[in-house]
Amino acid sequence: MILGGVAQLLIVLLAGLVSGALNSVGGGGSFVAFPVLVAAGLAPVTANAATTVALLPGGLASLWVYRRELQPLAGTSTRTLTATSVVGGGLGAVLLLSLPSDSFDAVVPWLLACATLILAFGRRVAAALKTGALNQPTILGGQFVLALYGGYFGGAVGLMMVAFWSIGLGLDPARGNPPRVAQLAAIYFTATVIFLLASDVADRPTTLAALIAGAVAGGFSGATVARRLSPSVLRALVLTLAIAMTVVYFVKASR
Hints:
Blueprint: H1 5-25, H2 30-39, H3 44-66, H4 78-98, H5 102-105, H6 108-129, H7 136-152, H8 157-169, H9 177-198, H10 205-226, H11 231-254
């Protein structure tokens, strides 16, 4: 059923608020915004692009809150990591506009399942295997793949990123939240530029504006709350989100 009128804008605004808050805390915001935009009448590819465009300002709002807590990942330059995210995000956006999404959507549940398992057991596995010390080329290669996925679809890419850093660098998910927000913003930046220039994402300006407004408010308020949570609480919240998103996508894929 297609939403309409003022009710549609209010629901889109609320979806943006929840999405921005989720992304600032642990990820998964696109799982809220995307289906609401589809219900509002946007084509799936356009809805996906609009979600990315809207979550960029929300991510920047979260990044402002975290600005004093940003620190380089172990052995990896922040500038190099960010450049990798920018390039990967742009290429992913090009793929979204050029290729059908059906084949990639089929593997999304499995990607989420892997990310959830790594989040749940990554530190134990890292300790058992004495990992957490991958070299810089491997980290950058993994980051590029994640950024490519983030620009193309992006569902739970933040969760996957923290999972990868957890197993590859031994980084605690709670400490990984500020750099996660920064790298998400980098991925969304180039993808947003490409979507605005090459897609029809701006054809529904009122809907897009409502989603952006909600995402900015949610991104700022969510980050403000998240930075006050204890590491154990934040870790549990991130893992809960990962499990929920994995279940949602397996259910969706089975239909």
